[in-house]
């Protein structure tokens, strides 16, 4: 168990012990607050990530350390959702977009928690003055014993770090609208900032929908009773006592003068990247938030998912937030404790950090789905994440998109090219007839078969790794020629017709190095039949002679993703050869594709290829240098490596991926590694 896992376990334990002491205070504000906290820690926190748990703990600590503005929390909730009784809407509030059209909805418990985190806590300002009869008090001021005291909202920064399809942008837009039009300063100015005009318009579209609910005539050319709406701005009519406004701003554009923001809504800040050391989005946020200086109560609201950027300004910010949350265990619950970081509230829905190397199969868990999205069944269908994981299994590009946007995981992005094609070509046997069936059992060769099953655009590959055990016994001073690798690969007929690699594929098909699988889906029996041709000597009619084994296959290794049907066919075929079920279980072994599993295998293969005297030879297949040249190495947060496509989706690495699986089998047989259970 890692240090972070221990911290999470301790935090969940602290919350389980302390939460009953806070229940009455939370219920007095809104019963959904306790419901959210209690639900988060059920099942030992299996659907609550470490930073969400620590964020809950921080808010409970703030309840011990600051005064609560219960009225402000309840007014904000009432302004957004209206008044409800017995589960039915009574009056007021905003209508949200639903599959059934615009409707009043009760905020979900986690959304109530976010409103609470933003508006609940107050702190004394540094100034006070004498009160004189007739003085006009500002919303944050109050009088005690003839003195005017200023008590302001504690939270000035809010991070709603959620996956897409979680309703975060519309929820943020509701806060924008309420701040600018009802509960904020009379002259409130809300700036919606995004990387692009199109992204900023998504939040503003929700704002416009809210405005038309309050003032149905506001879309008229001259505006309505209360509001005037343009393509980029919402303003109160000059005849109204309020002067609030909402403006749309996009990165890279010309920043307007005269900004006086009371709230800045930075939407999809996580997509911002540094270009030549500069980020247009961050520059926009800095200018907008810099204009909030004179405001008594300012708010910088981030609603974003993780981004496909290696280094970005918001990525650095959220990592600082996460590091600071890890120190929450140093502050005891139940007694006042203030820190310099109490000004920000964070609601972070993401995978736990140690899940970065999980396979797609390991991520296929309803508890994990809930960990990254508390709106399942409301903003997305319950089957959404399972469908997205299936899509991720078909393409490396889609996989990165799913892990980033649907699982809210910052991907390392540190992908570099691996072993170039020019390092492989000198290791290829010049004899094109030397294939795996020349590595016979009676000559001392033992074979490990790696399988990379494709269900889409990639190749379907079987890679044979033959190990010459006699060579190792009789030539102890050299390892050269100890191993020989050969590959059989198939391309779908439907993919061949559409692929940008068609001309290259056709050349290899004509040369016999690549096979065509008819139709639109792979039939794994094609590969099994081809393997049988190698495994047994042929009869006079060319069919395999099952009584005369040519090759000694020790293990079959495979990527478990999308492998159920091919592996069932393989096991049935082995059983038809008279191999017992127990023996088959020892022969057919899944290989986790996580960096934890792949890192030592990558290092071992590098020893074979890049050493002063390489000890692996490859068949003459042109797929070898091509596939190696397409490979990139991704270095994860844990400094472990795995193989990915080094460039576009058209670059295939399947023969190499299958070779790594075969190497795993060899290392397993030699005791270099232990089998994962």
List the helices and strands and how they pair.
Elements: H1 3-29, H2 31-40, H3 50-65, E1 67-68, H4 70-81, E2 83-85, E3 88-91, E4 95-98, E5 101-104, H5 109-119, E6 121-130, E7 141-144, E8 147-153, E9 157-161, H6 168-183, E10 189-194, H7 197-214, E11 227-229, E12 233-236, E13 245-250, E14 263-267, H8 280-290, E15 299-304, H9 313-325, E16 344-348, H10 360-363, H11 366-372, H12 384-392, H13 396-406, E17 415-417, H14 421-424, E18 445-452, E19 460-468, H15 469-474, E20 483-492, H16 493-498, H17 502-511, E21 514-517, H18 524-535, E22 536-538, E23 544-549, E24 553-558, H19 564-576, H20 581-587, E25 588-590, H21 595-610, E26 616-618, H22 623-630, E27 631-635, E28 641-645, H23 654-670
Helix pairs in contact: 1-2, 1-3, 2-5, 4-5, 4-6, 6-7, 12-13, 21-23
Labels describing this entry:
single chain, alpha/beta, Rossmann fold, 8-stranded mixed β-sheet, 7-stranded mixed β-sheet, elongated
Task: Describe this entry's structure for a reader.
This protein is 39% helix and 21% strand. The protein is of the alpha/beta class. The strands form 7 sheets. An 8-stranded mixed beta sheet has the order 11-12-13-10-14-15-9-16, sandwiched between helices. β14 (263-267), α8 and β15 form a beta-alpha-beta unit. The mean pLDDT is 86.
Short description:
By secondary structure, the chain is α/β, with parallel strands linked by helices.
Note the beta-strand portion: 15-25%
Approximately how much helix is present in the residues? 25-40%
Shape: elongated
The total count of strands amounts to 28
Calculate Rg over CA atoms. Answer: 31 Å
End-to-end separation in angstroms reads: 16 Å
User: Helical element count?
Assistant: 23
Largest sheet: 8 strands, mixed
Structural classification: alpha/beta
